[in-house]
Design goal:
Largest sheet: 2 strands, antiparallel
Number of strands: 12
Order of helices and strands: EEHHHEHHHHHHHEEHEEHEEEEEHHHHHH
Number of helices: 18
């Protein structure tokens, strides 16, 4: 769904302002609610709420890259990704990766600002509908707005923790200067929105609602299940995830199908941001991901968001299965510090084939642009912390011109949709809930669905048409009988399948293992990327982003800071 510019309607919601208000609201202009309370008016307001999904809006606060809806910035503070580029480029992001988190960092403010803009735009739609003469006329739009509000609040809670809850009551009264709500109240509000959406969204859209990108009732069930999963309510999570799995979804034959224009909005898409690169300067493309392209392809910029050695090592296999406990003991060979004119022989051991659809490695085809050439494709130098690898997901493939756009300063802007949730994620959440409930056999079967796709999908090839690496992946055939081992296998599979899609940091946080995992990661990463050891220290306070200082100051101290900041 393309963003529509509303020339007659100003809905610019800022999450900081004077001490009297939590959020400043511009004037709605000359149109009254009565004039807007029709199908066209409601749909225009609803489009405005959808438009915030991509992180782009007028008068945004903070660093523009921090608004990114695909959460690549959150990946940078996990064990999956480095900031990329040179250490000095985007210094605020470098400080995030180094865990030198200042509450005035523009990356925190950007994410906070755009998420509350989404909440407020959804509230504007809900208010308009509930105050109309016949709210039942707009049941589907109301349900979509409730879904969107639930999503934006979900992102706020998983990112910042206990945050102000902007309800329809305080939105209507413009009393935005609200204190932090309890997490129980926040989760209750999120669950209520997704529950309403599930009950009122259709199983399929017909008539005027044929545009892609709108959630189905099954999608609302999936998000409701995820909300329960985050609270470790396994039974409720399974109830909702089973409903989602009964919907019109499935796995694409190839994992790559999730990142191609021809198969966008296909069977695996639960809910995706609808990007477009076919308009003037590709302004509806993924602008907040514009830094994340290799310099190795002519005219591309800027070398950010580089996968870690630790992530690459996770794709090693033994007998086709992951090395759950030992993957950090040895490393996949890399070309860090080796010039392009020097010989390099890639790793010969067995690997999960998903690695080379996720990570760009020297000597392996890079999305159809030829073999990744090594040092000259990586903007970071030997003295920087980011290593030798490149991101591949959400980077358009050679020949997929429908997704290739160029912005006003020559930046890459992709028309590839971003999956906020895809069906593989639902299967893995259901596997997790089953294992935590003691249903190990069911959890194993769900994980094997993911692995079977990876086992049968087309692999990355070399110039001669052969497998580009020594790929070997197998199903789990021995029955899972130990819950701790099954839990480890499910969590590992989430990393392998969903790497570089913005999930990893939040998974580590909700599992309560972030501090231990990050300590192991920092130690292991420093063995192969020597500059990485720069006194980096992950602490328990880093399991949540700090609330932006300007939001606290603007509230006159009504909003309180997260512990440790």
């Amino acid at each position: 769904m393309k963003k529509i510019t509303l020339t007659f309607l100003s809905l610019i919601f800022l999450t900081i302002g004077c001490s009297e208000e939590f959020t400043d609201i511009d004037s709605i202009g000359t149109l009254s609610n009565a004039q807007l309370a029709n199908t066209k008016g409601v749909n225009l307001l609803l489009t405005g709420a959808y438009s915030v999904l991509d992180g782009i809006r007028q008068n945004s606060q903070g660093n523009e890259w921090g608004r990114s809806a695909d959460n690549w910035v959150a990946d940078v503070v996990s064990d999956d990704a480095h900031k990329g580029s040179t250490d000095s480029d985007q210094a605020d992001l470098f400080e995030l990766e180094m865990y030198n988190w200042a509450t005035g960092n523009g990356y925190f403010l950007a994410r906070w600002s755009v998420l509350y803009a989404g909440v407020n735009r959804a509230n504007a739609v809900i208010k308009l509908i509930t105050e109309s003469a016949d709210p039942t006329e707009f049941n589907q739009q109301h349900a979509q707005a409730r879904f969107l509000r639930g999503h934006f609040n979900f992102e706020l809670v998983k990112t910042f923790g206990s945050v102000p809850l902007i309800t329809l009551d305080n939105y209507t009264a413009q009393e935005f200067n609200q204190p932090n709500a309890s997490t129980s109240d926040l989760w209750a509000a999120i669950e209520a929105d997704f529950t309403y959406a599930k009950a009122n969204l259709p199983a399929a859209y017909t008539g005027d609602y044929t545009q892609k990108g709108r959630p189905l009732s099954f999608a609302a069930a999936a998000f409701l299940g995820k909300a329960h999963l985050y609270q470790q309510d396994w039974a409720s999570a399974l109830t909702e995830l089973n409903i989602a799995m009964s919907g019109p979804y499935g796995l694409h034959p190839n994992q790559l199908d999730n990142f191609m224009s021809a198969t966008e909005n296909g069977v695996e898409a639960i809910f995706a941001i609808q990007y477009s690169a076919d308009d003037a300067q590709s302004k509806q493309g993924n602008a907040t991901g514009a830094l994340n392209y290799t310099i190795g392809v002519g005219g591309w910029c800027c070398g950010f968001y580089q996968p870690t050695q630790d992530l690459v090592d996770a794709y090693k296999t033994d007998g086709g299965l992951p090395e759950l406990d030992t993957f950090q003991d040895t490393h996949v060979k890399n070309d860090f510090g080796i010039n392009e004119d020097e010989a390099f022989t890639p790793y010969a051991g067995t690997l999960d084939p998903r690695l080379d659809f996720t990570v760009g490695r020297r000597g392996i085809d890079y999305n159809g642009y030829g073999a990744m050439g090594g040092k000259g494709w990586v903007r970071a130098s030997i003295d920087d912390i980011s290593g030798p690898y490149l991101a591949k997901k959400n980077v358009f493939t050679n020949g997929d011109a429908a997704n290739a756009g160029v912005g006003g300063w020559g930046q890459n802007l992709s028309g590839l949709n971003y999956h906020i949730m895809r069906y593989a994620d639902v299967l893995l959440m259901a596997a997790e809930a089953n294992v935590e409930s003691g249903n190990l056999t069911a959890g194993q079967a769900l994980v094997n669905q993911i692995r079977e796709r990876a086992q049968n999908m087309a692999t990355v090839k070399d110039a001669a048409g052969n497998d580009a690496a020594n790929y070997d992946i197998a199903l789990y055939t021995a029955a899972w009988t130990d819950q701790a081992t099954a839990r480890k296998a499910v969590r590992f599979e989430r990393r392998l399948e969903l790497a570089m899609e913005g999930h990893r940091s939040f998974d580590l946080r909700r599992w309560g293992v972030a501090e231990a995992v990050m300590a192991d990661y920092i130690s292991a990463e420093s063995e192969t990327i020597a500059p990485f050891a720069k006194g980096q220290s992950f602490q328990s306070k880093h399991t949540l982003f700090p609330i932006p200082l300007s939001a606290i100051d603007g509230s006159g101290g009504v909003i309180t800071q997260n512990p440790g900041f």
